[in-house]
Design brief:
This protein is of the alpha+beta class. It is built from 4 helices and 4 strands, in the order H-H-H-H-E-E-E-E.
Amino acid sequence: GDNSMSYVADDTPEGVAHNYLLALRQADYARAYGYLSPTLAGYPASADAFAGEVYKFDWNFRVGDSSVTLEVTSARVTGERAIVSVRERRFSEGGLFGSSESTDTFNMTLQRDAAGLARAAWKIVASDSYWAWCWDDNAGCR
């Protein structure tokens, strides 16, 4: 079945990656923000700040682009870290040669945060896409 449009359990790296991307697609920025690791150098101060940064870099988050579909394809877990691969498909309609499709794959890096939690939670520490680069920067987003 196609679960690309519904949330899944978020106790695996794949689940967290899927839910983060889905929350972004559905503009549920409070939920998406909850999947970011607070250890990020430029961690947004609040869900509102996070939402503002998504809009500031909207091209990087494909805001409002309904031609894109996303699918988590694999995860490699090594201890407390995981690399999740995501396939992004973009459809374009019409044009001289009819519709076309392009496919791209990007990686997301997650880390298990066991601090004081009954069940260790996976949080996103880096991503090649659907990401604001200033989250990696001590100065944060300006």
